[in-house]
Structure formats: structure tokens, C-alpha cells
Amino acid sequence: MAVVAAISLGLTLLAVRLVTRPLKALTRATYEFSGGSTPLPVDIDSKDEIGELALAFNRMVERIARSQRDLEEVNARLEEMNQTLETQVEERTQALKETIRQLLEARDELQNAYAEMKQMHDVKAAFLRSASHELRTPLTAIKANIDYLCSYERDSISQDVYDMLRVVRKNINNISSMVEEILEIVRLESSQLPLRIGEVNLVGLIQECASELSMLQQEIELVMELPESLIIKGDRKRLHDLFTNLLGNAYKFTPHGGKVKVSVKMDDRSIMVEVRDTGVGIPKEHLPHIFEPFYQVTKARGGSGLGLAIVKSIVERHGGWIDVESKPGKGAAFFIWFPGELRIS
Question: Is the pLDDT of residue 276 over 50?
Fold first, then answer.
């Protein structure tokens, strides 16, 4: 009996050991896994439930290990991308800083250039203003003496002298007109000539200018497309000078048989006046400069080269702008836009 009991106890202990050993292996692997380590596969060859549990555990560990490797690869790629992005951001930041530095330098250069141009403009304006005033007195004296000789001493001078005096008087008048134009454009550009703003019948004013220039019209057809009435806020005298100048130029550069057209169009935002002719036109290379003071496309027609500069200044002083279109032999068209808020009725 004692032998049988001993054998039975030995078999029981062996059975318990065979059962608990794989469980201990699974427990140890589980502790390792929960501690952050990747355990080796649990080697259990039994075909029972414990074997199936070990097989499922091994598969789970393999999947998690594979996912961890994939995650590490993704993290590595992200780190590489992050470093690349940081490098690019740094490069772009440096490029942006350089661009800002260049822009600031360009701004400073522009400010300095503007200050120099303004100073030059002020010096030029002061010179023209002073020279014009200095010329006024002797011109007035010369003209007064010539007028006296032509009027009161006509009988005591020969016809040749009288003809010469008439030529001198004509040129004196031209120089006096140029001096007045110089003074006017200096005042307009420096805003020293205040506008006398009032109600202006723009349609009536254009018709008045056309009537005053009828002697220049001769065999040129004049077409006017105007509204019945258009009252605006403006300086009547300056606007009169503006349209007299544009119409006078249109007649001057349009041959007999040609046509001059004046039209007015308006909407809520602007009032547009167009003066178009079928004259000789303006070469393309001259168009950017024709509003500059003293600029002349051709010397043959005479003039001071100040008319269109004065026109531009008057338009701008009324808050508007002016443009021109032209082709040689196809005439010219001047477009003037006044802001819609100038319109009264």
C-alpha cells in the first residue's frame, strides 16, 4: 500500500508540474509584455486549451511587435520629415528676412528719391515763379512803349518800322502769354491757386467754348453729343480754360473737311467727357509725355507746350483724371473723367 501511495503521489506531482509549467511560462511572458518588453514566443507543444492559449498569446505578441515596428518606422519618417520641414522653414524664414530687408532698403531709396524729386520740383517751381515775375515787369514796359508808338506816334514812323513794331508786339504778347501759363501751372501743381468752386452748367460751358472758337472751326465739322443739362461743382474759369484748350488743339490739328466730336456720358460713379478729332494724330512714342510741361510733339505748330500740362492739372485739381488715345493719321481722342460726386443735377 505504501508503494502504491508513493507512486500515486509521484504521478500527481508530475501531472501538476506538467500543467503548471506552461501556465508559469505564460504568466512570465505576460509580466514581461506588461513591463514593456517583447517576450520570446512561449514554447508550448500541448494540444489542449493551454496550448491554444499559448498559440493565441504568441500571435498577439507578434502582431503587437509588428505594429510597434511599423510605428517606429512611421515615427522615424515623421522625425525625418520634421527635420526637413524645419530646415525648409528656416530657409524660407531667412529668405523672407532677406526679402523684407531688400524691401525696406527699396522703401528707403524710394523715400529718398521722392524727397530729392520734391526738392527739385520745389526748386524748379521757385525758379519758374521768380523768373516769371522778373520777366513780367520788363515785358509790360516794352509792350506799353510799343503800344504807345503804334498808337500815338504812328504818323512819325515809317511803314517798315511800324511793321517791325507789330512783329515785336506779337512776340511780346506770345512771351507774356507763356509767362502767365508758367505761373498758372506752377500755382496749380503746388496747390497755391485755390479753386473757386461753384455750380457750373457743364453743357452750357462746352457750348460756350465751342462758340468762342468758331473762327478756328472753318471747314471742320463739329458734332456735339451732350445731355440737355448737367450741373456740376467746379471752378468755371479753370474748366473754361480746360475745354478751350482741348477744342483749340482739336481744330489746330484737324485739316479742312475733318471732324471734331465732343460727347458727355455719365453714370453713378463718373462723368466722362470725350474730345475726339480726325486730325494728324500723335505718334505712339510721344503719348506718354504729352502732359509734361513744355513738351511738344512738333515745333512747327508753335505754342509753349504748357497747354496740356495745365489741362491735366485742372482735371486733377477737380479730383479727376485724363487719358489719350491716338494713332498717326487717325486723329486723337482725349478722355476726361470727373468723379460722380461732382454732379449736382
Answer: yes
